[in-house]
Design a protein that fits this description.
The complex is a heterodimer of chains A (about 425) and B (about 160). Chain A has about 425 residues and is α/β, with parallel strands linked by helices. Chain A has three domains: about 15-230, NADH-ubiquinone oxidoreductase 51kDa subunit (Rossmann fold, 3-Layer(aba) Sandwich); about 240-320, Roll (Ubiquitin-like (UB roll)), CATH 3.10.20.600; about 325-415, de novo design (two linked rop proteins) (Up-down Bundle). Chain A has helices at about 20-25, 30-35, 40-50, 60-65, 90-100, 100-115, 130-145, 175-180, 210-220, 225-230, 260-270, 300-305, 325-340, 345-365, 370-380, 390-405, 405-415, and strands at about 75-80, 120-125, 160-165, 205-210, 240-245, 250-255, 280, 315-320. Chain A has a four-stranded parallel sheet with strand order 3-2-1-4, sandwiched between helices. In chain A, strand 5 (about 240-245) and strand 6 (about 250-255) form a beta hairpin. In chain A, helix 5 (about 90-100) crosses helix 7 (about 130-145) and helix 13 runs antiparallel to helix 14. Chain B has about 160 residues and is an alpha+beta fold. Chain B folds into two domains: about 5-60; about 75-155, Glutaredoxin (3-Layer(aba) Sandwich). Helix content of chain B is about 45%, strand content about 10%. Chain B contains seven helices and four strands; from the N terminus they run ααααβααβββα. In chain B, strands 2-1-3-4 form a four-stranded mixed sheet, with helices on one face. In chain B, strand 3 (about 130-135) and strand 4 (about 135-140) form a beta hairpin. In chain B, helix 1 packs antiparallel against helix 2 (about 25-35), helix 2 packs across helix 3 (about 40-50) and helix 3 packs across helix 4. Classes of the chains: A alpha/beta (about 425), B alpha+beta (about 160). Chains A and B meet through strand 3, strand 5, strand 8 and helix 13 of A and helix 2, helix 4, helix 5 and helix 6 of B.
């Protein structure tokens, strides 16, 4: 079953208006947190709820918040990461476009919990509609006194700013995002220091994904125990999965964590499009290793997907049918990662370029004996050797494709053509 | 001046929201891009005067971000997503169809200056593939029929 928690109100076109949102309970959690709870109580509740980062890393949000130093006199910042760019992922956009006040409210509560009086939401530059919707929602929240000076008469001041990016995937990585927000090139920073210690303008900063923050009002309203009643023990709550590719009914679906992958693809998504045969599934955005048809019963939670050899990531589930050449898939992806490498670390900057050349020549029938081994060596030399996870992200699908579909790679090199001719026509 | 009074005002308003002026670089570039259609040295100079940051630092940031064309483009910049979810649903054939319809190759501009066709990386519209962005608008779940209609509409406006 779909479990609509974050998506509870997205079907109402008036939900973007503050009066409608408030009539359905928006900002109730913000009032509760601000008037009845101390910041440390809010952190404790969110920590206890077990809400984990929905941007890809899965790090517990409350634990992250607790890293903000108490004795640092500098301003603290909350940044909502709305740079949604992981191929296969299109969920944060829906939240921003259809229930922006839920996102604003989550940001308010998180800001209060960490003692921040200025919060930013970094929206990817191409997302013009989500940007405008968020701007409007924030303006309404100011008008109604949920933002600004002396919020709801409590003496707490909170400002909120929508910032826009410029089309760089890397800016979804939190330290690159912070550089970008400072007006610099979006290159990642070496950690430590972590943003919670030295983030935006070298001040303590928390960066959370849109979906993570959208969980927070629900946790505050209903309590950690209630939240934990959904999902699994280690992966509590619900998660939005973006279902795309060769599936009958693509879309964004919210389910309890632990729901089997087959339920998402077959029951909610209507199965592989045209009744064709499934070849592989990317479960957590393009950076995550493939799962095979016999792994379809894997529960969608952080632990089970990891056990199956992949990652839950951002929840971007991409369905691939048997008409698809896996070298073609990887060529598409390595082109992307090479384009998006920020150029800071040599293994990623040079390695993604070499990989693109090698993979492209194999895909186009010009592969040579030993190319696969070369690719494997380059992958090994990128993996774990870069400042940010982009290098790993580029390598993981390649390694997985070679491991699971090696015969297709070998066929390519031997026969100078695809084992499976891939030609998809749009309607 | 290339930037209109309205754009300058927008940039000044945005700048006032940040604790540090430099943070206004990307928002300023975005305002300029949506007004002009591309960025240029002259625009970096103008932004430099408005937010009081050296033009070199503006250019340094701008050249990192691929969303902003650095050369003039057609009135309508057609950006087709060619990443995996869209590719699985025929993004390559969509690009080919647009090339035929517009009688240009990817990367080119029509002779009337109306359309430039490029392909781009994932635009976060994977569940409504194939898709394209034209200027500030997303067009999703594209079919041949839809594409014909969109082009006719834009030609009518152009």
């Amino acid at each position: 079953m779909e479990k609509k928690l974050l998506f509870k109100n997205i079907d109402d076109p008036d939900q973007v208006k503050i009066d409608t949102a408030v009539s359905k309970g928006a900002y109730k959690a913000w009032a509760k947190a601000l008037k009845e709870m101390k910041p440390e109580d809010v952190i404790a509740e969110v920590k206890d709820s077990g809400v984990r980062g929905r941007g890809g890393a899965g790090f517990p949000a409350g634990v992250k918040w607790s890293f903000i130093p108490k004795d640092n006199p500098r301003p603290k910042y909350l940044v909502c990461n709305a740079d949604e760019s992981e191929p296969g992922t299109c969920k944060d956009r829906v939240l921003m476009e259809q229930d922006p006040h839920l996102v604003v409210e989550g940001m308010c509560i998180a800001a209060y919990a960490i003692g921040s009086h200025l919060a930013f939401i970094y929206v990817r530059g191409e997302f013009v509609k989500p940007y405008r919707t968020m701007e409007k929602a924030i303006a309404e929240a100011y008008e109604k006194g949920y933002l600004g000076k002396n919020v709801m008469g409590t003496g707490y001041d909170l400002d909120m700013v929508v910032h826009t990016g410029g089309g760089a995937y890397i800016c979804g990585e939190e330290t690159a995002l912070l550089n970008s927000l400072e007006g610099e090139r979006g290159m990642s920073r070496i950690r430590p220091p972590f943003p919670a210690i030295e983030g935006l303008y070298a001040c303590p900063t928390i960066v959370n994904n849109v979906e993570t923050l959208a969980c927070v009002p629900h946790v505050i309203n209903n309590g950690a125990q209630w939240y934990k009643s959904m999902g699994t023990e280690k992966s509590p709550g619900t998660k939005i999965f973006s279902l795309s590719g060769h599936v009958e009914r693509p879309g964004n679906y919210e389910v309890e964590l632990g729901t089997p992958l087959s339920y998402l693809i077959n029951d909610l998504g209507g199965g592989v499009a045209g009744g064709r045969k499934l070849k592989a599934v990317i479960p957590g955005g393009s950076s995550t290793p493939f799962l095979l048809p016999d792994q379809l019963e894997t529960p969608l939670d952080y632990e089970s997907i990891a056990e199956a050899g992949s990652m839950l990531g951002s929840g971007g589930v991409i369905v691939i049918d048997d008409r698809t050449c896996m070298v073609w898939v990887i060529e598409r992806l390595i082109h992307f990662y090479k384009h998006e490498s920020c150029g800071k670390c040599t293994p990623c900057r040079e390695g993604t370029g070499w990989l693109e050349q090698l993979i492209s020549r194999i895909e186009h029938g010009e592969g040579k004996e030993g190319d696969i081994e070369k690719i494997e060596t380059i992958c090994d030399n990128i993996m774990g050797r870069t400042v940010c996870p982009l290098g790993d992200a580029a390598v993981m699908p390649i390694q997985s494709s070679i491991k699971l579909f090696r015969e297709e790679w070998e066929y390519h090199i031997k026969n100078h053509e695809c084992m499976v001719k891939t030609e998809f026509e749009f309607k | 001046m290339i930037l209109t009074d309205e754009s300058v005002k927008k940039i000044e308003e945005k700048m006032a929201r940040y604790p540090r002026r430099k943070s206004a670089i990307l928002p300023a570039l975005t305002v300029a891009y949506f007004q002009v259609g591309h960025l240029s040295k002259e625009i970096y100079e103008e932004i430099s005067h408005i937010i009081d940051i050296p033009a070199l630092e503006i250019a340094e940031a701008a050249t990192f971000y691929t969303m902003f064309p650095k050369e003039p483009v057609g009135k309508y910049l057609i950006q087709v997503c060619h990443n995996i979810s869209c590719a699985l649903l025929g993004a390559d054939s969509l690009i080919k169809y647009l090339e035929e319809k517009l009688e240009i190759r990817k990367g080119e501009t029509t002779s009337d200056g109306l359309f430039t066709l490029i392909s781009v990386e994932c635009l976060g519209s994977c569940a409504s593939a194939p898709m394209m962005q034209i200027n500030d608008k997303y067009y999703e779940n594209l079919t041949r029929e839809k594409v014909d209609r969109i082009l006719a509409e834009l030609r009518g406006q152009g």
